[in-house]
Write a structure and sequence with these properties.
7 strands; globular; mainly alpha
Length: 421
């Protein structure tokens, strides 16, 4: 396969991230990185310490800008590419990119897969993408899936975000196998039966300490996208998918996605949003996972299926995003994109403008009146670049925390496809 690179200086690479504060498919590593930062490094989106989520939020931010027709800052893109280790992997944050990664560097699959999706979308970094994909394939588990860290048991969230990286780069997950198992085989092991007392069609994050699978809304939203072969950025299905949960003798990934979507629909029906409770605290609205659920429902069954939680987000999510930062704005932009909603008029908030203001100004103009022009320019570049090929082989983190065991999963939260078989 070939990675087509942009020859124009105006075309740059970008990155995206997922999570509870910004959502799906990627989670932040709970273990400390080697050198915590006290101030946000130049080129990074957001002002909080990037120790646990730097690469994740940067990736989501860049991917969201690309999705909204904005050409990211070259400084912001370089910040991301500089975070890559020589073996192709990414850690949540490396304070000194010039220093070699070592055994203590907390590299992981989620941040690496998010960076792949972002950089592929903006273009021009085929070598970085190829190297990252090679590393991801090298740490695939024997069941076909991935855990957050190399060598850890597979989980639904990590497997789904890696599937997103594979499909974003036009790599068929069915052909990425370990011991005869593909990522889809692994995902189906986390899918629960339709009976309410058995899980009602949800996905589990991974087995608990007793080997039992428990329904997890975060993992379910991620699992829908993963089973459908979708990444962090997904569009509404052309036709409505199945609206109810149906068990089958031989489950398929499409069937598992439909069952999981039915679970999300039922769970959202009570309040119009998902809830979370941490540390014994009372249930709180879970904005990030609700945004992820909107993307999952739209991708599986069409935008209408996500209308209720989308309306809730438009009414309530602005304050959360302002407090949470770039990954949160990115998650909301992904939800808007998946449902055909204008991200520049999302419940009265211009999500794109707010995201742009959290980091380096995008190339050209970041103002709303130039977004369409930027999108048209990128479209022209993508058409022209087809003659300039270079050979290379090539669903949430924003809320920064991954709880191992049945945990919360990766909260995290593509266009310009430059690779062809």
């Amino acid at each position: 396969m070939n990675v087509r690179r942009r020859s124009s200086a105006a075309a740059l690479a970008a990155i995206a991230v997922i999570g509870a504060a910004a959502a799906p498919a990627v989670a932040a590593d709970p273990s400390p990185s080697s050198s915590p930062s006290k101030a946000a490094p130049s080129g990074l989106y957001g002002t909080t310490d990037p120790q646990y989520d730097g690469v994740w939020r940067q990736s989501l931010a860049l991917l969201a800008q690309d999705t909204a027709g904005v050409i990211p800052s070259s400084t912001a893109v370089k910040w991301l590419t500089d975070q890559q280790c020589a073996n192709g992997a990414f850690a949540p944050f490396r304070a000194d990119p010039a220093a070699d990664c070592d055994a203590k560097t907390p590299i992981d699959t989620n941040n690496t897969a998010a960076a792949v999706q972002a950089l592929w979308a903006v273009g021009g970094h085929g070598d970085v993408v190829e190297s990252a994909l090679g590393w991801l394939k090298s740490v695939q588990n024997k069941d076909g899936g991935w855990g957050y860290s190399p060598g850890t048991p597979s989980d639904a969230n990590s497997t789904s975000v890696v599937v997103g990286a594979l499909t974003a780069t036009e790599t068929d997950p069915e052909k990425v196998v370990k011991d005869g198992k593909s990522p889809y085989d692994a995902l189906l092991t986390f899918a629960l039966p339709c009976a309410k007392d058995k899980g009602a069609g949800a996905f589990a994050f991974q087995p608990d300490k007793d080997g039992k699978l428990l329904p997890n809304a975060d993992a379910t939203a991620a699992g829908v996208l993963g089973a459908l072969g979708k990444g962090l950025v997904a569009e509404a299905a052309d036709k409505a998918g199945a609206a109810s949960c149906t068990d089958a003798d031989k489950p398929t990934r499409e069937g598992a996605a439909a069952n999981a979507a039915a679970y999300l629909t039922a769970t959202l029906a009570k309040d119009g949003h998902l809830v979370s409770a941490l540390g014994g605290s009372a249930d709180q609205p879970d904005y990030g996972n609700t945004a992820d659920a909107v993307v999952a429902l739209a991708a599986q069954g069409g935008a209408d299926k996500a209308a209720e939680p989308l309306a809730w987000l438009e009414k309530n999510a602005a304050k959360w995003a302002a407090e949470s930062g770039p990954a949160a704005y990115a998650q909301l932009i992904f939800a808007a994109h998946a449902t055909g909603t204008d991200p520049r008029a999302f419940g009265g908030t211009d999500l794109v403008e707010k995201l742009n203001a959290t980091g380096p100004a995008p190339q050209g103009a970041a103002a709303k009146d130039t977004a369409s022009a930027n999108a048209d320019e990128k479209s022209d570049e993508k058409s022209n670049e087809k003659e300039d090929d270079s050979p290379f082989g090539v669903w949430w983190f924003v809320g920064v925390c991954l709880v191992f065991g049945i945990g919360i999963g990766f909260l995290l939260s593509n266009r310009n496809k430059k690779q062809q078989p």
